[in-house]
Amino acid sequence: MSLLSVENLEVRHGLLRAVREVSFAVDEGEVVAVVGANGAGKSTLMRAVAGAHQPAEGRIGLDGVDVTARRAHDRVAAGIALVPEGRRLFADLTVEENLLVATRVRRPGPWDLAAVVAAFPLLDGLLKRRAGNLSGGEQQAVAIGRALMTNPRLLMLDEVSLGLAPIMVDTLYDSLGTILSGGTTVLLVEQDLGRALGVARRVLCMLEGRVVLDEPADEVTREQVVEAYFGLSRAAAATVQEEPA
Ligand SMILES: Nc1ncnc2c1ncn2[C@@H]1O[C@H](COP(=O)(O)OP(=O)(O)OP(=O)(O)O)[C@@H](O)[C@H]1O
Fold it and tell me: Residues enclosing ligand 1, CB less than 6 A?
């Protein structure tokens, strides 16, 4: 049985159908990358799975249990954790306090303060610092650590590399590599196609709210993903790529 199942999901912002007729499933231990252009619906999909945005239609299942009507904190308790775009830390709280906030709805499991610092060595020595005073990369590590502190069964990461220096992205992905190899089930929104295809076992591409490609990462070419990403025919996609910037 799949860990996460999304069936015929529709999520609206007012009249806008930001996610439409979306169905997919994620198996335990799978790492799935969600890619797509700006506005394709990736963040809205993640927020709906996390319970931050109620869908207009469809069903979200965790381990066969329908969680569609459950509130966000009940979904955390059930094992769904989201690292939102923009991180959303408590800027005036310390790193330690930000991490401990998550333990109010903590599931039993291996993640605690020491485990988070071990996974993200860049946080070593920063536990008593105000989160608002950290660099963007350090804040992102705290945001991922905060999600891990709940001992999630499904970890969703929305654009962890957004706005960060390449060297910091490398550092974060080094840490993520350790986490991913530990068997955590992950749904990852990533703009960098190379990175997405590098870490994920499956890639799911969204276009205007719909899933237009859902393939094993090692069976899909970069060209096929780009084609799905822009919604172009293969020939048209090649023309776009050849045009000078
Ligand atoms: N709070 C909101 N109110 C109204 N419309 C919204 C809101 N959030 C997103 N949208 C719209 O919903 C659509 C999907 O947005 P969403 O942020 O889910 O896409 P995305 O693929 O995550 O894009 P990005 O990479 O830019 O974050 C877009 O048309 C966006 O303008």
Answer: 13, 16, 18, 36, 38-44, 85
Of the residues 9, 43, 156, which should be mutated to test ligand 1's pocket, given the most ligand atoms within 8 Å of the CB? Answer: 43
pLDDT in tens, 97-127: 999 987 777 788 889 999 999 999 989 899 9
Rg of the chain in Å (alpha carbons): 18
Beta-carbon contacts of residue 74 (< 8 Å; ≥ 6 apart): 51, 67
60 forms beta bridges with 6
ipTM of the complex: 0.94
Q: On the CB side of 170, how many CA atoms lie within 13 Å of its CA?
A: 3
pLDDT digits (tens, 9 = 90+) for 194-205: 888 888 999 999
Atom of ligand 1 nearest to the CA of 14: 4
Q: Which CATH number fits domain 4-95+153-242: 3.10.129.10, 3.40.50.720, 3.40.50.2300, 3.40.50.300?
A: 3.40.50.300
Contact 157, 144 (CB under 8 A): yes
- Say how many Å lie between the CA of residue 46 and the centre of ligand 1: 11
